[in-house]
Design brief:
The protein is mainly alpha-helical. It has helices at about 10-25, 35-40, 55-65, 80-105, 110-120, 145-160, 170-185, 195-200, and strands at about 1-5, 25-30, 35, 45-50, 70-75. The chain is built from 8 helices and 5 strands. The strands form 2 sheets. It has a 3-stranded mixed sheet with strand order 3-4-5. It has a two-stranded parallel sheet with strand order 1-2. Helix 4 packs parallel to helix 8 (about 195-200).
Length: about 210
């Protein structure tokens, strides 16, 4: 028997599950995904798989129905190591992009113009590709809920503690998301983290080009 855990979870938790399952003759793979609801609908998810290569070979065709980018990353638990690191990087980008665009708007630049500059320059990143549909419209549908993002960054920071790796930037981002969640933004898309800074400064980062 094979159990595939596709949740985003603590690697140490997955490894405990795998140990218990192994004692019952069940092989475990952890296979968290990235790509959001749209990727799930299109079957284009990236899947990070931790576990035995022979076990992965047996279920690869099943995983390929959900995504063609399947990354074997090591022993069981390593799928979640990769996923949490990816999310920590993306969430850090989200926070710093929010700060940059609030600053730019406050200093007199149209957000759309700033977006065109940054996405054509070294500051470009995946998070910014969402801004025209989310931040600039004041629209934050829960494609990746802020509450889930807070859970993921907390798991990443905890993993850093387990491995004695200081994550000062990750810890700051975690606190920003805790603050946003406590302000009632948990059910909105992660880009809604900008709303807290907008409220503090007293402006909105909205595009004049609709």
């Amino acid at each position: 028997d094979i159990y595939i855990d596709m949740s985003t979870n603590s690697p140490s938790t997955i490894r405990r599950i795998a140990g218990d399952a192994r004692a019952m003759g069940v092989a475990v793979l952890d296979a968290p995904v990235s790509g959001g609801t749209r990727g799930a609908e299109l079957g284009s998810l990236a899947i990070m798989v931790g576990g035995d290569a022979a076990t992965l070979k047996k279920v690869r065709k099943v995983l390929e129905t959900m995504g063609q980018k399947i990354f074997p990353v090591g022993d069981v638990g390593c799928g979640n190591v990769a996923k949490l690191i990816n999310n920590m990087i993306a969430l850090t980008c989200s926070s710093i992009c929010s700060e940059g665009f609030v600053l730019g708007t406050k200093a007199g630049i149209d957000p759309q113009v700033l977006w065109e500059i940054v996405t054509s320059s070294t500051g470009n990143n995946w998070v910014l590709q969402q801004f025209p549909q989310t931040v600039f419209q004041g629209n934050f549908p829960p494609m990746y809920r802020l509450s889930l993002a807070r859970k993921d960054i907390s798991l990443a920071v905890q993993m850093g503690k387990e491995y004695d790796v200081p994550l000062p930037v990750g810890a700051i981002v975690e606190q920003k998301l805790i603050d946003a969640e406590s302000a009632g933004l948990g059910d909105k898309h992660i880009d809604a983290v900008i709303l807290r800074l907008e409220e503090l400064i007293g402006l909105q980062v909205r595009s004049k080009q609709r």
